[in-house]
């Protein structure tokens, strides 16, 4: 009992009451006489379809890990479909992982300057401290092309070369450096300006320390050049992608035939075909080179074997026949743009896939099909042109630069331990935490949510700068600024906890800030949609000890888990469209964001796309540019987190403590502008 009495007498009771007064306060003023659509009060909307938001969105009390394929404008992949990417690159697109932390809650609270006033501790302050640190520079990650193999499994008109790639290649370089900084130590009652209204109990004899780092405006920069002596790949205009347009097969350009099907004045051997059944006869199921563009296999032209040697010799009579059709003017690659063919310009068009079978005429009597093309292989065309290095091998020089914060000072803050906090507000201020992580780099974002009748997300208000009418050429911060406060915004309107087809909510107001006045227009809309994403739960099967992947039967996979995502169609998803228009009063510059999200039952987000726009010319339509798209690959959940939550074992943490948690990857909270889950990264000038 004596110990308990001693503890109680050492407690200091800190009562915190708030009057919101700030020169940086954002004033929200709704406009007058504007008809805004709002269906929240209507009982019947759309076609009547509803869905419990807990079935279509995430239960943040569960342990979730969702893997998305990420397509962005910054890496020039936004226009590719998932299947096109796999087909062209022989690898899956970059992956982004969304995960939750059900055993942690973050507390977002109000400001109180008196409780956070700091006192300098001179004896623990050090100037000019030298610390050693390191950064790791990573090269580009790629796969070398080992060979191309002709795939005879599909039907003949779908056959093509398939790539066989090496294991992933990547190198790293660690740079050790020294940083000089000042270490400054303070003491305060509480550790952050983010404290809540109400009553807070602190132990004045117990201290905890928190370390903050402050960096110079310009970061430290470290560069390294990686050299790969033997990188291999197909060229952009590889022969495999060329579609023959020399339709009379004479090696030169010809005008349209007009009304007569003409021969070419040259004896034509049989079109080469792949004799799959080894019967020395062409069959309809066998691929061939269609040299005369008539979509039909043609045998050799009949000739008189004057010398009886069994092969055609120059000068021997032959029957010169056409290709059975009236050919139009032959197209060609007009390299110099003069619309006149010359012998250096190719008679071909470019296909999207490597579906042209390669034939080498090094032996004109016995031309050979290249079923497998390996590094160093070459071929000779019928007209004697030699192409070397069908798979090009080259020295790849990869210059990489990484930045590290140039730390000016390290601030250590000693604060009293908080014993308890009683909130006088209606909300407890606790938010579930999720994190999206780029697997192809060090980028990540934190997202904080709570659910009530609606789904709420914590955000820091941000706005484009006065001269913001441009695509940013560097970081997003060069085009946007943000306030150091937290606002709660509605991510999804879900009256009575339901998503409803036909829901529309429009909002309009003015934000008066210290930089400018902005007109804010928001529109929230819900519809139904059918969507196809590479999220098939079972990605393949085993047959005779071999793993067969649904997406690509030739994919090299040791287990079914190694297979790439395969398409599945979801016929009853909710499509949520959130549109923001931000207009700077005075300049009239207008910026738009549109976030389109597809939600599927028991899966959550299956596709998420972000589009942006800037002011268009007067009288023109809006021009939206897609800058990022996520497509679900797979998602796993468990009830472990909710078990801890029900037992009251979730730990409440503050934003500045994220870097102390190993389960968070020791990654600190850093502001980035987000629209929903998407980071807003404006594309560079194009």
Notes on the protein architecture:
The termini are far apart. The chain is elongated, with a radius of gyration of 33 Å. Residues 1-32, 110-114, 196-201, 419-428, 468-478 and 641-648 have low confidence and may be disordered. It is mainly beta and 686 residues long. It has a domain at 239-389. A hairpin with a 7-residue loop joins strand 15 (359-360) and strand 16 (368-369). Strands 2, 4, 5, 22, 23, 24, 27, 29, 30, 33, 34, 35, 36 and 37 form a 14-stranded mixed beta sheet that branches. It is built from four helices and 39 strands. Helix content is 4%, strand content 43%.
Short description:
With 686 residues, the protein is mainly beta. It is built from four helices and 39 strands.
């Amino acid at each position: 009992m004596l110990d308990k009495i001693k503890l109680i007498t050492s407690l200091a009771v800190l009562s915190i009451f708030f009057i919101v007064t700030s020169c940086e306060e954002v004033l929200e003023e709704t406009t007058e006489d504007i008809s805004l659509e709002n269906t929240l009060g209507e009982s019947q909307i759309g076609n009547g379809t509803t869905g419990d938001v807990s079935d279509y969105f995430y239960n943040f009390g569960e342990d979730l890990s969702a893997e998305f394929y990420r397509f962005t404008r910054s890496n020039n992949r936004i226009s590719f479909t998932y299947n096109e990417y796999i087909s062209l690159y022989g690898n899956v697109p970059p992956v982004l992982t969304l995960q939750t932390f059900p055993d942690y809650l973050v507390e977002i609270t109000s400001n109180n300057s008196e409780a956070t006033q700091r006192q300098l501790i001179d004896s623990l302050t050090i100037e000019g401290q030298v610390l050693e640190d390191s950064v790791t520079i990573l090269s580009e990650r790629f796969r070398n092309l080992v060979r191309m193999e002709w795939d005879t499994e599909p039907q003949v008109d779908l056959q093509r070369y398939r790539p066989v790639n090496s294991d992933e290649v990547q190198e790293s370089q660690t740079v050790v450096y020294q940083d000089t900084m000042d270490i400054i130590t303070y003491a305060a009652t509480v550790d952050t300006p983010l404290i809540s209204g109400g009553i807070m109990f602190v132990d004045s004899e117990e201290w905890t320390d928190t370390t903050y780092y402050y960096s110079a405006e310009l970061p430290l920069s470290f560069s390294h050049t990686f050299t790969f002596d033997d990188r291999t790949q197909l060229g952009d205009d590889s022969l495999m992608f060329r579609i023959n347009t020399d339709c009379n097969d004479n090696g030169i350009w010809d005008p349209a035939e007009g009304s007569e099907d003409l021969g070419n004045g040259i004896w034509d051997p049989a079109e080469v075909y792949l004799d799959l059944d080894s019967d020395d006869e062409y069959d309809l199921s066998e691929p061939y080179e269609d040299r005369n563009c008539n979509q039909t296999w043609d045998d050799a032209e009949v000739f008189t074997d004057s010398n009886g040697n069994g092969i055609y010799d120059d000068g021997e009579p032959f029957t010169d026949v056409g290709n059975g059709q009236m050919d139009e003017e032959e197209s060609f690659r007009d390299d110099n743009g003069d619309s006149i063919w010359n012998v250096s310009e190719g008679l071909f068009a470019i296909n999207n896939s490597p579906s042209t079978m390669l034939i080498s005429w090094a032996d004109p009597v016995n031309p050979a099909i290249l079923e497998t093309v390996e590094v160093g292989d070459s071929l000779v065309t019928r007209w004697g042109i030699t192409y070397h290095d069908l798979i090009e091998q080259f020295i790849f020089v990869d210059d990489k630069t990484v930045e590290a914060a140039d730390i000016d000072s390290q601030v250590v803050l000693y604060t009293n331990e908080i014993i308890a906090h009683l909130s006088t507000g209606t909300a407890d201020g606790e938010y579930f935490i999720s994190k999206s992580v780029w697997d192809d780099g060090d980028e990540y974002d934190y997202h904080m949510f709570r659910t009530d009748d609606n789904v709420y997300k914590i955000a820091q208000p941000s706005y484009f700068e006065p001269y913001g009418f441009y695509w940013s050429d560097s970081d997003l911060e060069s085009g946007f600024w943000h306030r150091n406060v937290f606002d709660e915004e509605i991510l999804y309107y879900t009256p009575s906890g339901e998503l409803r087809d036909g829901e529309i909510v429009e909002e309009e107001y003015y934000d008066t800030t210290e930089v400018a006045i902005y007109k804010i227009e928001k529109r929230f809309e819900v519809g139904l949609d059918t969507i196809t994403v590479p999220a098939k739960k079972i990605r393949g099967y085993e047959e005779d000890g071999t793993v067969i992947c649904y997406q690509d039967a030739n994919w090299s996979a040791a287990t079914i888990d190694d297979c790439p995502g395969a398409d599945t169609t979801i016929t009853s998803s909710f499509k949520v469209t959130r549109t923001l228009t931000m207009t700077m009063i005075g300049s009239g510059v207008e910026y738009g964001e549109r976030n389109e999200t597809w939600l599927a039952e028991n899966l959550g987000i299956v596709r998420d796309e972000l589009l942006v726009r800037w002011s268009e010319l007067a009288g023109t339509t809006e021009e939206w540019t897609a800058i990022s798209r996520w497509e679900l690959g797979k998602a796993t959940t468990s009830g472990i987190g909710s078990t801890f939550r029900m037992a009251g074992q979730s730990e409440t943490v503050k934003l500045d403590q994220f870097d102390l948690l190993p389960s968070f990857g020791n990654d600190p909270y850093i502001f980035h502008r987000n629209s929903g889950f998407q980071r807003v990264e404006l594309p560079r000038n194009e």
